[in-house]
Write a structure and sequence with these properties.
- By secondary structure, this protein is an alpha+beta fold.
- Helix content is 44%, strand content 25%.
- It has three helices and three strands.
């Protein structure tokens, strides 16, 4: 199963979620077990976070997984509306 990886950055104002990458596994736990090191690296790279500033454990406490098929971006809804409008 495919999961979207979100990182919650509560250290900025306003706090924000970042869509970081995708991870595959039989379950969320399996996906994290197989991909946690890579996901942590991607979060560090995306936000320019150094290991001296924040530990891996603290960083990993702010990582969330969502099933890929349950995340619906606004652009999908907008493009669907445009297609419907063109058909009329």
């Amino acid at each position: 199963m495919e999961y979207e990886v979100l990182f919650y950055n509560g250290w900025v104002d306003p706090p924000a979620y970042y869509l970081v990458t995708a991870a595959s596994g039989d379950s969320p736990e399996d996906a994290l077990q197989k991909n946690l090191a890579e996901v942590t690296h991607e979060v560090r790279k995306l936000l320019g976070l150094d290991k001296q500033d924040i530990s891996d454990v603290r960083l990993q406490e702010t990582i969330y997984l969502l099933r890929a098929d349950s995340l619906v971006p606004v652009r999908t809804v907008h493009s669907s509306r445009k297609r419907t409008a063109r058909k009329r």
